[in-house]
Amino acid sequence: MDKIKNILMVGVGGQGIITASDILSEAALLDGHDVKKSEIHGMSQRGGSVFAHIRYGKKVYSPTIKTGEADVLLSLELIETVRWLSYANEKTKVILSETKIQPQTVKEYPESVIDSLTKKFKDFYLVNPIEINKQNGSHKVLNTTLLGVLSNLLEISDKSWEKAMENLVPKGTYESNLSAFSLGKKLFS
Amino acid sequence: MTNKNLLSGNEAIARGAYEAGVKVGVGYPGTPSTEILENFTKYEDVVTEWSVNEKVAMEVGLGSALAGKRTLVTMKHVGLNVAADPLFTASYIGANAGMVVVVADDPDLHSSQNEQDSRHYARAAKVPMLEPSDSQEAKEFVRYACELSEGFDTPIFLRSVTRISHSKTVVAFEPKLNYEHDKGFEKENIKKHVMIPAFARQRHFVVEDRMKALEEFSNRIEINRIEKGKGEIAFVTAGLCYNYVKEVFPEADIFKIGMVYPLPMRNLLEFCKGYEKVYVVEELDPFIEDQLKARGANNIVGKEILPVTGEYSPELIYTAITGNKFKGMEVGIKPFARPPMLCPGCPHAQTFNAMNKLGLTVSGDIGCYTLGTLPPYSAMHACVDMGASIPFAQGIELAQGSEFKYDVVAVIGDSTFAHSGITGLINAAYNKRRILVIVLDNSTTAMTGMQPNPFNGSTITGEETVVIDYQKLAEAIGIKKDNFRTVTAYKEEIISETIQELLAKKELCLMVVTGPCLIYKRKKEKNNG
User: Which residue, of B189, B218, B247, is where some domain finishes?
Assistant: First the structure.
């Protein structure tokens, strides 16, 4: 596989972007790919935007994705999807949790974000977080369910996904993460 | 089991230090450098400390290297300003065992107060500097830096940037080197260790000779190399930018520089002669470009098309050179900004509310609480560098003279106060200033991820240690007993009353507001049970 896969994960501090991107990177590594991942944290813990670029393939140079070249945009927050759209093109597959996080300082959350997005992208996977959290019995593994959705769009083996989760999720949460992942896998099939 | 591991640049530097047999690791936390020491301290058979500031770290590190142990010193770019004094003379003294100073720059100011290019320090202090392109190189370069440091008897820099420190790339592990240095501290060698003018004058010749030897040497090392492509376009680049160039010009001829100071000038000039035009790609200042031009290369293109500010990206480089743009999507919705904020429920928000309502002039400092500048608090009016809050407020008082209205307060966090705030407070007491100093004590160094400090009773390894007593400190430096108060962070009224009461004294006062960081508290509770 010469073509590099580019996955952009975006959200807000505390939503689990960093862990989810670590799991994907590790799974790609276990499948034998060269992998690079770039993330910006630091101020992010204080409610700022968080994003992670994950690139894998035979030989990866830049740790960042180029403008318009994301194969998948996985987003845990509505407006964050819009913020990072410049990395997407009309063929980009978008996985989106319908979550709204509104800072105190913002009076009105922009309307019809989902409508404008669905018009632009053919491959659009919209996830209802309330529904998923109910099915998972927890709000802590929503990111893992989105990874399950993502796994159907990539060619990484289940074995590597599972091993990556085993290595990286907090102690004692492997089982709940695994079932959240399976839920995501089945969601759109 | 394949030997492939995904490591951030910072984790890789820590791993590299471990593999190289580095024994001592010291530093002060600062994004994006913090995780280096946090990871290094986890390895067996190493000795580490969070020093109170970068200057102290540099001095501890120099002592340790001279005493014969390979040593790692870590800091962010602005921390190197604090450590510059010992750095310039450490260059004269040399190293004995390897002394590697890691400095992490922050192009685009993800979490910093300026965007300085630390490569200038290598040149100014006459200290060699290596710059890795990814985590594998970051790891390898630490070991190589140790060898060069010993071989040329000099401290050596390893420079990182945020995108190297916080990007993960594949690293192959090697076993730890069983490193034994043969010399301990040579007490008799005063001509090398005591920098009185007579001795230092002689050492300066040694330094100049060393740098000449290093420049010559840099023409012969593998980390400075030419990668031949199709010969249609040529680049000189280093560090992260090398990967950006490879991404968009995979078939270019590239001179990849691993040692950014001193530059392999002979080879570089020879390389440049082979092309009509050579692009020099480097983030921030034209450090390589200016030196090449000064040595007569007249076909260099760099900052005339590439910016001095911000981070680069593959597409930025591509567009600057070809004029072709990359296109992304947009939907015509303008996303609102999501500025970082004090955490919801942060106990220290109350103090900012109180200061805002009292309409005070607030001289601020570096930490989470700098976020008190922004709405809804809007209660900070200046912030410069670590520890500046207290002296800056004194400057306002001095300038206002008889017009001074006793409405100026300095606000500083516990870790920053220990770092370099105390010196400013001594200055205020000694010079009879009349400001109010407020320490917001959250029991940790929160902004960089909960590192312990001299006010919270534990060391980098979690061991119990002494705690500075604010009241005794205030007394010792000459603040009147009645001009000192401690209040808890939770009641805005009491905070407000105390501020007013102390300002009314029209004398130097110290007020400590205590309220542990919520994240720290949660973390501590989790660890305890």
Answer: B218
Task: Give the whole-angstrom CA distance, residue A68 versus residue A73.
Answer: 11
B343 located within any domain: no
Which chain A residue lies closest to B346 (C-alpha atoms)?
A46
Residues B440 and B505 in one domain: yes
Q: Which domain holds residue B388?
A: 349-528
A161-186, pLDDT tens digit by residue? Answer: 999 999 999 999 999 999 999 999 99
Contact B341 A40 (CB under 8 A): no
Asked if B111 and A43 come within 8 Å (Cβ–Cβ), the reply is: yes
Cβ-Cβ contacts under 8 Å between A and B: the total is 145
pTM to 2 decimals? 0.97
Which residues on neighbouring strands pair with residue B73, listed in sequence order?
A: B26, B101
Q: Same domain for B306 and B436? A: no
Is residue B365 within 8 Å of B371, Cβ to Cβ?
no
CB B145 within 8 A of CB B98: yes
Closest CA to B163 of A41, A148, A21: A41
- Closest-CA distance of chain A to residue B328, Å: 4
Give me the domain span that covers residue A29: 5-187
- ipTM > 0.85 (yes/no): yes
| Contact between chains at A29 and B326 (C-beta distance less than 8 A) | no
Residues B22-65: pLDDT tens digits?
999 999 999 999 999 999 999 999 999 999 999 999 999 999 99
Residues B432 and B479 grouped into a single domain? yes
**DSSP β-bridge partners for residue A37:** A54, B168
B420 touches chain A (CB under 8 A): no
Question: CATH number, domain at B380?
Answer: 3.40.50.970
